[in-house]
Amino acid sequence: MRFLSIAALAALAAAPTAGATVNVMTATEDLADLTRQVGGDRVKVESIARGYQDPHFVEAKPSFILKLAKADLLVVIGRELEIGWLPPLIQQSRNAKIQVGGDGYLDASLTVKILEIPTGQITRAMGDVHPLGNPHYWLDPGNGRRIAKAIADKVSQMAPADAAYFASRYADFDKRLAEAEKRWDATMAPYKGLKVVTYHRSWPNFVDRFGLDVIGYVEPRPGIPPSPGHTIDLIGEMKRQNVRILMVEPYFDLKTPQSIGRETGAKVVVLPPSVGGEKEITDYISLFDYDLNLLVAAIKETGAK
Ligand SMILES: [Zn+2]
């Protein structure tokens, strides 16, 4: 009988086998769903942020430290979206794999289309929260596809025996997303160039993809709360340009948006920007179905064009 050395046994134990489960943590629920889409039953995945929370400001619950300690892979939005809450959790997990730059750290922003990359010197006066370009990039389905591909590639590296399974899951997601995009494009086709205002700069990729035109923001700068002077200017601009739609993320106070709505006749539409933002929004594709339906209903109601 041949005995294996301890090193050989350890290597065997560590070798990925078909049906292996990759233990994944994600910063947001959008990333968790995209991981599930490509990972199927070969991944275990949990998000730290909930879809109804402002992703810039998430409570760093210590319970996540233990979960991060056991993770094989951490997927983040990046571009400093999570800078206020994720770094201490990563550090305290003491898990070398998921530290920034580790094999188990995937920054989803590296392979997507990023808008609003600042040029010139960045100062605090430009706002608090988008210093490296707009981090709300998952709201373009083209970027959703790119994120899913990056995750599929990563989990395939980590569990090579399951690579064919992940590739086939990705191909299926890609196909379903392409079908949904045809539906969404048809829904939005009549409203090309429609002028809207949004609370936070959460939607540049979304409006770019669906042909809307954002003419202003309730926040004077990203992450800076509304000020009376800015609100008055915004109301004037909305009246001049006959803007009838004001998109607000669910975690902002509705008081200022509602007063802007009263002054201008614009309809305040509360649009969740993430999976889990409403109970009907159970996955990445239903996020767009939900938001586009709500948006089109509001456009029709106000007669905006
Ligand atoms: Zn933001």
Helix-strand blueprint:
Blueprint: H1 6-14, E1 22-26, H2 29-39, E2 43-47, H3 63-69, E3 73-76, H4 86-93, E4 105-107, H5 141-158, H6 163-188, E5 195-198, H7 204-210, E6 213-217, H8 228-240, E7 245-248, H9 255-264, E8 267-270, H10 284-302
Parallel strand pairs: 1-2, 1-3, 3-4, 5-6, 5-7, 7-8
Bound molecules: zinc ion.
Zinc ion (ZN) binds next to loops.
Average pLDDT across residues?
Answer: 93
Would you count the extended β strands for me?
Answer: 8
Helical fraction: 40-55%
Tally of separate helices: 10
C-alpha-based Rg, rounded: 22 Å
What structural class do helix, strand and pairing data support?
A: alpha/beta
Q: Report the oligomer.
A: single chain
Order of helical and strand elements = HEHEHEHEHHEHEHEHEH
Ends distance:
81 Å
Bound small molecules, by name, code or SMILES, are: zinc ion
The main pleated sheet reads as: 4 strands, parallel
Strands across the major sheet, in which order? 2-1-3-4
Q: Name the overall outline.
A: globular
Strand content: 5-15%
What does this structure look like?
This protein has 305 residues and is α/β, with parallel strands linked by helices. Helix content is 42%, strand content 11%. Strands 2-1-3-4 form a four-stranded parallel sheet, covered by helices on one side. Strands 6-5-7-8 form a four-stranded parallel sheet, sandwiched between helices. The protein starts with 5 loop residues before the first helix and ends with a helix. The chain binds zinc ion.
Give a nutshell description of this structure.
The protein is of the alpha/beta class. It has helices at 6-14, 29-39, 63-69, 86-93, 141-158, 163-188, 204-210, 228-240, 255-264, 284-302, and strands spanning 22-26, 43-47, 73-76, 105-107, 195-198, 213-217, 245-248, 267-270.
